[in-house]
Structure formats: C-alpha cells, structure tokens
Specification:
Length: 311
C-alpha cells in the first residue's frame, strides 16, 4: 500500500514540467483540492541528484512564499513513491494556452506583462532568479482565485543569485547542464552551459520577460526556429531580434529592445527596472489607441514573414 494514496486521492494529470508531473488531488481527511507534483525521473542526472534538485527548488519556493507565485503547501518524501510537492490548485489557463486560442488585446498584453514583472520583481528583490519564465509557467486565473488574476508557476527551477546563494545550493545547481526552456533561455546561459559557470543573474528573467512581451503583442514567438538546438543557435546570433515596425515606433519599442537585448550589458538588470519603464508607459496611454487603429486597418499585428531576418 502506498501511504501517499492514503493521504491523497489522485485524479487527472494537469501538466508536466522539466522535473515533475502535476495532478489534481484531494486531501482525504479534509476534502481540500490541491495540485500534487511528483518527481519525473531524469536519468541523465541520476535518481539521487534529481531528487535533491526537485526538493531544493521546492523548499526554496516554500521558504520565500512570495506573493504572486503559486503557493507551496507541503514538501515531503514518500518512501515508496519518492519526493512530492503539494501546491494550491489554480483554476484557469496558462498564458501559453491563451495564446494558442486567441490573441491578447494590446492593453491586456501590457497589463498581464506588468503583473508578471511585479511578481518577479519580488523574487529579484530577495535575490531569487526564476530562470524558467515562459508562457506555460504563467497562469491566468479565473473565479477570483488569484488576487491579481496572474500567478507565476514553477519557482522550483529558481536559483539564488550569487549574493544570496549558499555554497551547498551552488554545488547542487552545478550538476545541471543548463536550466531553462530553449525558446526563452538567455544567450549567456547557453554560453555558460559548458564552462562550469552557474551563477544566475536577474537578467535571464528580463530576457525571457521581453520574449513573452513580444509574443503577447505580436501573436508569434520571438524565436522562430523549430527544435531545441536551432532555438539555442538563434539566441546566440549576434543581431538583435527584429521588432515589428508597428511597435518599434511606439514607447514599447525601447522596452522590447532593452529586455530582449542579446548582450547582458545592453539589457535591463531586473524586473524592478522593467516596472520603472512600464510605469512611464502607463502615464499616458493615448499612443495605444493609434497602435490599435493601425492593427485594425491591417487586419493583424504585422505580416511576420516580411520582417528582416536575424543576423
């Protein structure tokens, strides 16, 4: 008999990530519905190391308990089934799911990205870098279950920045070749993957945030390649990511440039800096009307096939 099943009734699978599979579950004693995340084997890291990474990430997220991130209720190890995480159950859809079904209006996109920057800034102020920001890790909640309508998932991939990180966590993190998703991983992370350098700067989150802003505004990913290797190569191309003219000539253009910059020295440092820039954008929204009118006239954001090539 598996003791975990004595405590929880496990229902359907909700999704999978790099280290775990998430299920809807019910706590038998109270009837509380929760999200139960169980470790997904990573043979290349070894069972023991996979468990350590899984547990350390979860315990880090639980320790900081930052507003706007999915709430971690419990982190434990079951002798028969291994480590698991109990989280609050969120109802809604991920940003990825939303973008697959219908585009966001320009104002809605900016407001969602503002909320994401607000949440991530709380982590950056505490010395925590998420390292795996992407649309599938952003939950757009329904029924008022999220205070601001947005939650950031999977802080378990996070590492502490150099100033806040403990030596044990740094050693543990170095087992991983690189952390992040190919479509949203910062160029410097790719370059460091074989050098032994594992210190994460908030700028890796800034880069991913910029790519999400681009995707929400245009309806297409900023990184166009298919397949992980080609995506990584595209991040490493020296030329900037082309910004559609309809956005380049608005106040959003500089923000996209400063967040999607390939070189860290040309990029904003943290989500705190993003918020400062966005607050200026929101002081006068009249420019948004002109953009929306232009999009309506063209019938879409822009013909992405006519944009200048990378490089």
């Amino acid at each position: 008999m598996n003791p975990l099943n004595d405590t929880f009734e496990v229902h359907e699978e909700l999704g999978q990530g790099g280290f775990g599979t998430v299920y809807r579950a019910t706590r038998r004693a109270t009837g509380e519905e929760v999200a139960l995340k169980r470790l997904k084997p990573r043979p290349e890291l070894g069972e023991e190391h996979s468990q350590q990474l899984f547990l350390n990430g979860a315990r880090l997220a639980k320790k900081f308990d930052l507003e706007g991130f999915v709430k971690i209720l419990e982190v434990d190890v079951e002798p028969f089934s291994g480590p698991f995480i109990v989280m609050e159950l969120l109802r809604g859809e991920t940003l990825y799911q939303r973008l697959c079904t219908r585009p966001l209006a320009a104002v809605e996109a900016l407001e969602v990205l503002f909320d994401i920057a607000t949440i991530v800034s709380r982590a950056h102020k505490r010395g925590v870098v998420h390292r795996d920001l992407k649309p599938s890790n952003i939950m757009l909640c329904k029924d008022g279950l999220c205070k601001d309508g947005v939650r950031v998932l999977d802080l378990g991939m996070a590492t502490l920045v150099a100033e806040a990180r403990t030596k044990s966590f740094e050693t543990l993190s170095s087992m991983m070749r690189f952390v992040g998703s190919p479509g949203y991983i910062a160029p410097e992370t790719v370059r460091q993957s074989g050098t032994g350098q594992r210190q994460a700067s908030p700028q890796v989150d800034v880069y991913a945030w910029g790519l999400m802003l681009y995707e929400c505004l245009t309806g297409t990913p900023a990184i166009k390649s298919k397949g992980a290797v080609r995506m990584l190569a595209e991040h490493l191309q020296p030329g900037p990511i082309p910004i559609p003219e309809v956005w380049a000539r608005t106040p959003v253009g500089p923000l996209l440039s400063q967040t999607m910059a390939k070189a860290p020295e040309a990029r904003l440092y943290s989500a705190v800096d993003i918020l400062k820039q966005m607050e200026l954008l929101f002081e006068d929204r009249s420019w948004l009307t002109n953009v929306e009118n232009a999009m309506t006239e063209h019938g879409e954001m822009e013909d992405m096939d006519t944009l200048p090539p990378m490089g």
